[in-house]
Amino acid sequence: MLPTTVLDTSTDLASLFQRQAQATPDAVALEDAHVTLTYGEVDHATSALAARLQALGVGRDGLVGVLMERSSDYVIACLAALRAGGAFLVLEMAYPHTLLGSERSTRRFH
């Protein structure tokens, strides 16, 4: 039987990840075909990208379009959008260019 963990639903995902990074900065957080990153490394990269997103105007109710192959950078981009105070919209690489253009024109995202 697996251990049970109670999830604090009053805390958002970005904060939960940051808390885990503070508790176990040297533990492996992400692995993809090219890289293995610790919680501390992901937290640092997420924080830097979130600051850049905020400088571009992402904040509460901001929407960040994420168009990239699934990778550690993909996870960092999604977490950074949340940490900046916004949300993310996953745009699949397989979408036709016309659909991606219409998504961009009908939604306000960075």
Automatic annotation (TrEMBL):
Pfam family, one: AMP-binding
Signal peptide region: none
InterPro entries hit by this protein: AMP-dep_synth/lig_dom, ANL_N_sf
Keyword terms, alphabetized: Phosphopantetheine, Phosphoprotein
SUPFAM superfamilies, alphabetized: Acetyl-CoA synthetase-like
Gene3D superfamilies cross-referenced by the UniProt entry: N-terminal domain of ligase-like
Domain (AMP-dependent synthetase/ligase): residue spans on this chain: 17-97
Keyword presence, Transport: no
Name assigned to this protein: AMP-dependent synthetase/ligase domain-containing protein
